[in-house]
């Protein structure tokens, strides 16, 4: 695909996207990062309002692109970034719902491994269970930045679900028994795509919901208040 001039989901020409991409779920959060943190910004995608931008952060070329919501959407966009556009690393910067009682609104979680109720992994026809994990060197870099910034965080296993409005919260109670930290909706496809392509990925989250307590951030707060996570991801990206 050396002559790639776009896909059905991304209008970028090959070469317009940096080697490392930050991926929030929300397109407006991608725009917020591009507008407030990057210099010499170029918008390379607006198809389906999944905004993608490339610019410079402290002299390093970085892209930021939304993933949309859910495993299938992340699966499409991260697959194309890795396999069609030559992206080497993706950092997901998203929101999550706490499962662990040790987490509160605004806390940061880094996904070392992912559990799921999705059928996404079945496409690989593996003769057993596969547990996708984040890249260890990326985890080390991000945690080092957070330590320097004196920001608290937890590293551990997260749960990627197909379901946002679940009929029963008992499922989360079951995951809680296995010390799963939080629930989100994208990381299993990101991690699988990275591993299959021989690339690297990391998911980090800000806790926006306490589903077992019925507490949530407002939509605007989700988009604008994840400053610690976004700044840590940007600082880590220039060291990778």
TrEMBL record:
Its EC number is 2.4.2.1. GO terms for molecular function: purine-nucleoside phosphorylase activity; uridine phosphorylase activity. The keyword Transferase applies. It comes from the Bacteria. It is an enzyme of class 2 (transferase). Homohexamer; trimer of homodimers. This is Purine nucleoside phosphorylase DeoD-type. It comes from Peptacetobacter hominis. The gene is deoD.
